[in-house]
């Protein structure tokens, strides 16, 4: 049996506590990516719980992308990050449709984007700069398309922000950003629709131009916190 230490589980939420125990073992380094976890029998002894609860907890951790089963070998801690790990967050927000949860999600998105912009500026290359400029012009030109399409503008906006995220070259950041943008998709589409209806296309383009200018400027002369928060006022007005 591996040299693991667990506290006996006593309360009613047994499966959740098994998940917490295994997750904490991974976080504190007792179990590392690629390690085989204890067998069901060993976990029953370590945690003082039944086999069915152990199996249910392992199934859930597999569905979260934390564990994987290798045939004829056992159950192992998965190596590397997978976007599926963010699914519990996705489902939790989907099932909570209150205005306060939307506001909290927008605040999270704002914080992520500020950090993402700062990292993207550090990692910007001549090629990625050229692609960002191309995506900005694609967004600006989407307002002139005939016949005009709100959906086309929305997709161009998504491509612009996805390109910024890709500049960071971080699968974890990219997955987090994609998940949060997916959760706010309806709100963002409603915002784009409202901006166009109110004739604020030039303001919308100017806000994105400021984001681009921050990234491509040789010196940091732009206040990115202010720029991002200013652009998020459009979404806040839609909530």
Automatic annotation (TrEMBL):
Pfam families: FCD (PF07729), GntR (PF00392). Residues 12-80 form the HTH gntR-type domain. Transmembrane segments: none annotated. GO terms for molecular function: DNA binding; DNA-binding transcription factor activity. InterPro entries: GntR_C, TF_FadR/GntR_C, Tscrpt_reg_HTH_GntR, WH-like_DNA-bd_sf, WH_DNA-bd_sf. Keywords: DNA-binding, Transcription, Transcription regulation. PANTHER family: GNTR-FAMILY TRANSCRIPTIONAL REGULATOR, TRANSCRIPTIONAL REGULATOR, GNTR FAMILY. This is DNA-binding transcriptional regulator, FadR family.
């Amino acid at each position: 049996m591996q040299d693991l230490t667990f506290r006996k589980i006593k309360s009613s939420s047994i499966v959740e506590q098994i998940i917490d125990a295994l997750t904490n073992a991974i976080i504190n380094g007792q179990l590392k990516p690629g390690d085989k976890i204890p067998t069901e029998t060993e976990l029953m002894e370590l945690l003082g719980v039944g086999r069915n609860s152990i199996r249910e907890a392992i199934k859930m951790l597999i569905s979260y992308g934390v564990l994987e089963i290798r045939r004829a070998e056992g159950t192992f801690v998965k190596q590397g990050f997978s976007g599926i790990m963010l699914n519990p967050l996705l489902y939790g927000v989907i099932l909570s449709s209150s205005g306060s949860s939307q506001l909290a999600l927008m605040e999270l998105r704002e914080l992520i984007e500020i950090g993402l912009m700062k990292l993207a500026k550090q990692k910007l290359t001549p090629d990625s700069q050229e692609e960002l400029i191309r995506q900005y012009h694609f967004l600006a030109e989407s307002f002139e398309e005939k016949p005009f399409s709100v959906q086309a503008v929305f997709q161009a906006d998504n491509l612009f922000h996805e390109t910024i995220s890709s500049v960071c070259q971080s699968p974890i950041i990219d997955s987090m950003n994609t998940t949060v943008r997916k959760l706010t998709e309806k709100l963002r589409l409603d915002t784009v629709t409202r901006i166009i209806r109110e004739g604020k296309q030039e303001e919308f383009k100017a806000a994105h131009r400021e984001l681009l200018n921050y990234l491509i400027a040789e010196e940091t002369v732009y206040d990115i916190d202010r720029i991002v928060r200013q652009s998020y006022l459009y979404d806040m007005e839609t909530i």
